[in-house]
Write a structure and sequence with these properties.
about 140 residues, alpha+beta, Alpha-Beta Plaits, four-stranded antiparallel sheet, globular, binds inosine-5'-diphosphate, nucleoside diphosphate kinase activity, phosphoprotein, transferase, ATP binding, nucleotide-binding
């Protein structure tokens, strides 16, 4: 196993309900360290660039609107197998399918407004981290 870094986003549905601390506690309890974090408000265009891989999906416009609808907390999590571990802590995309105790089972409102984003592979993690953070902002 190797130490990895992954990009996490606490989405607008969760910041609106003041859940940042509860979600961060889940990451820390799982052994993930928050080595960078900032609260920002994306424009729809910035959300669109971030989610460009989904541009052909029917929910793309709705997703970009949602991600620009309020503040988000972007963060870099570090730890052993951080990418897979974070996705385990997040739970399935649709909260109806998410395992008990996961962030999405506890907090997500719907398949779209599902409280958190997490990178899905080392290559995407590197690109996504670089989208929001400079190397100087990553304090491991
Ligand atoms: P993931 O976030 O679990 O990796 P993806 O399939 O990569 O899931 O989808 C990215 C995001 O797009 C989801 O987290 C969710 O916010 C949104 N999304 C996915 N499927 C739907 C859908 O069927 N309707 C609306 N939004 C969706």
């Amino acid at each position: 196993m190797a130490t990895e870094r992954t990009l996490s986003i606490i989405k607008p549905d969760a910041t609106k309900r003041n859940l940042t601390g509860k979600i961060n506690a889940k990451f820390e309890e799982a052994g993930l360290r928050i080595i960078a974090q900032k609260r920002i408000h994306l424009t729809k265009a910035q959300a669109g660039t971030f989610y460009a891989v989904h541009a052909e999906r029917p929910f793309y416009d709705e997703l970009c609107e949602f991600m620009a609808s309020g503040p988000v907390v972007v963060q870099v999590l570090e730890g052993e197998s951080a990418i897979a571990k974070n996705r385990e802590v997040m739970g399935a995309t649709n909260p109806a399918d998410a395992a008990q105790g996961t962030i999405r089972a506890e907090f997500a409102e719907s398949v779209g407004e599902n409280s958190v984003h997490g990178s899905d592979a080392p290559e995407t993690a590197a690109v996504e981290i670089a989208y929001f953070f400079s190397g100087l902002e990553l304090v491991g």
